[in-house]
Structures are given as structure tokens and as C-alpha cells.
Amino acid sequence: MKDVIIIGSGPAGLAAAIYARRAGLDMLVLEKNYASGGQVLTTYEVDNYPALPGINGFDLGMQMREHADRLGAEFKEAEVLSVMNEGTVKKVVTGEETLEARSVVLAMGASHAKLSVPGEEELAGMGVSYCATCDGAFFQNKDVVVIGGGDVAVEDAVFLARTSRKVWLVHRRDELRAAKSLQQKLFELPNVEVVWDSIVQKIEGGTQVEGVLLTNVKSGEEQRLPVQGVFVAVGILPNSGEICKEARQDEKGYYIAGEDCATSVPGIFAAGDVRTKRLRQIVTAVADGANAITGVQDYLVTLKM
Ligand code: NAP
Asked: What is the DSSP string of the chain?
């Protein structure tokens, strides 16, 4: 039986792995994907991680993984189906086996939210994308639209503007949510145009995206943008699903936990984007990993009493 099983290998899971090894815990990280790093892997440039300005997201993810490897962290590729609380024993059920641990850190992160408009599902992979760094190369010298007004949408628009001919950024309000420094970069680009106060009615096309139909929420006017690519960046949803039903979640599915990362179930902790928190950033995810393992250590002491 492990002292702790960490589920997920994004920044929260990797920081937890580093802290767990430094605490001398018998630990295991279960990761769904073949590469560690989580959402960071597909971030072109990270400009707010202290001491590493402008680092490529893939490099940052790899460096975190190498750090954990150097400390002897154990990793296994497996999709976790459920976590069951049996008091002092937690059972982690994967597609292949049931593992046991004294404690669990839920660090499954979050995934892209969908727009839920006609054409989105039908044209996914045929011009509709949720990852600019993964798919941007298919749109060299083409016209694309990014939907959203947060950090990811603006980062995506800036990234795409390097190779695409024209980039529209469509936002439903008249003010972006993204960090001001990112906005400044965006507004300096000659081939980017922001369409304010507008929502997507539908994504049009036969076998490939041909355009998007927008409605201005203030005037009611419709506008059609002829684009070959649609990048959806309208936020994230927690990857909590049905994994740990016993730990209380909020209405969006985030595990309810404070800065100590303790969930409603003793011995089960939630770290990173999957827990309720104000600021979801790499820097707060790694802080969660550290706090969760501190909680794990305290919890393990109580088991011995
Ligand atoms: P976000 O900050 O939640 O922004 C989502 C954007 O999409 C908002 O502008 C929102 O509009 C818009 N939106 C939501 N639903 C929509 C809909 N149905 N139709 C049209 N627009 C819609 O999400 P994000 O940009 O994906 O970022 C996710 C988290 O990761 C954030 O906490 C962000 O700060 C963080 N992040 C961190 C870093 C970093 O640490 N370097 C980098 C990237 C992202 P409203 O503004 O009107 O709500």
C-alpha cells in the first residue's frame, strides 16, 4: 500500500510528486496521458512563472517532470475510473487494476469548455480546434477566428497571428478578461481584429469550416466572418467527472477545498485546477501540490495515533 497516490501529472501533480519524494513518502503518480505537464504542455509561452519569463510551456512541463524523476518519483500511465474511501484505506480503480493507498491527491486538472453551438461538434477536427499550439500550423496564411476573452483566447490569438493571415478575436463583452500585459501584445498586432460584444450563432461549413455567423448582443446585428479555422477558448471545466463522488463538489464540479487542499473526505486532497479557488494559474497549481502533500503528511501522522 502506498502512502499517497497522486492522480494527474500537471503542475499540481508534479509539484505534489516532488514534495512527496522530499518527504520520503512511498508514492505513485497516475497519469492519463503519455506526457506529463497537463495544460501547460500546449501553452506556447508562459510569461508569469517567476524566474522563467517567456518559457515555452512544453519545456516547463518537461522540467517539472525531470525534477520529479530526479527525486525518484514513480509514475504509471493509467486512466483512473474511481476513488473509493474505505476509511484508512483509499482504493484507486483504474482500467486495469485496483490500487491501495493511505491517502490520495486529486490533481486531474481541467479541460476545454465547449461553445455548444451548431456546427461545433460536426466540424471538430475539420477546422474547429481547442488548441492553437497543436493545430495552428494547419492555418498558415489562412484566416482564423478565436472565441473568448480570457488569457487562453488572447494567448491563442497572439500565437496564431505569427503564421495566419488574419486573426479575429470574438468576445461577448466590450472588455477582455485576459491579463493587461497580454492585451497589450494583442493590440500591437496589425493582423488581429477584435469583434466586441458578439457571440457565435453557428459555425458554418460542409466538410471543412467556411465561416462563423455572429450576433452583436447590443445591436442584434448579424455578421459573417469567412474563416477556415475556429479556435474555441471559452474557459475550462474540471476533470472531476465521476472519479471521487464522495468528496464534495460545487455546482460546476470543482472539489470544494481551501488552501490546505483538504476535501470533505479525510485523507483525500484536491490540488490545482480541479479544486475551488480564485486564481487558476501554474503558480497556484504548484503551490497546491506543496500544500496537499503537507496535508497528506499531517494526515498520515493521525493514522499512527
Ligand atoms: P477564462 O479565464 O475563464 O476565460 C474564458 C473566456 O471565455 C471569458 O472571456 C469568457 O467571457 C468567455 N466565455 C465563456 N463562455 C463563453 C461562451 N459560451 N461564449 C463566448 N464566450 C465565452 O478561461 P481561460 O482563458 O481558458 O483560462 C482558464 C484559466 O487558466 C484562467 O484562470 C486563466 O487565468 C488560467 N491561465 C493561466 C495561464 C498562466 O498561468 N500563464 C495561462 C493561460 C490561462 P467573460 O469574460 O464575459 O466571462
From this structure: -EEEEEE--SHHHHHHHHHHHHTT--EEEEESSSSS-GGGGG-S-B--STT-TTB-HHHHHHHHHHHHHHTT--EEE--EEEEEEETTEEEEEESS-EEEEEEEEE---EEEPP---TTTTTTBTTTEES-HHHHGGGGTTSEEEEE--SHHHHHHHHHHHTTSSEEEEE-SSSS--S-HHHHHHHHT-TTEEEE-SEEEEEEEESSSEEEEEEEETTT--EEEE--SEEEE---EEETTTTTTTTS-B-TTS-B---TT-B-SSTTEEE-GGGB--S---HHHHHHHHHHHHHHHHHHHHHHH-
If one residue of 131, 198, 234 were mutated to test the ligand 1 pocket, choosing by the most ligand atoms within 8 A of its CB, it would be 234
* Domain positions in the chain: 2-112+236-304, 128-232
Spell out which residues line ligand 1, taking CB within 6 angstroms.
Answer: 46, 48, 115, 147-153, 155, 172-173, 177, 199, 233-236, 280-282
* Residue 304 scores a pLDDT above 90: no
pTM: 0.89
* Residue 176 CA, ligand 1 centroid: distance in Å: 10
CATH topology of domain 128-232: FAD/NAD(P)-binding domain (3.50.50)
Q: What is the pLDDT of residues 26-85, one digit of tens each?
A: 999 999 987 788 888 888 888 899 999 999 999 999 999 999 999 999 999 999 999 999
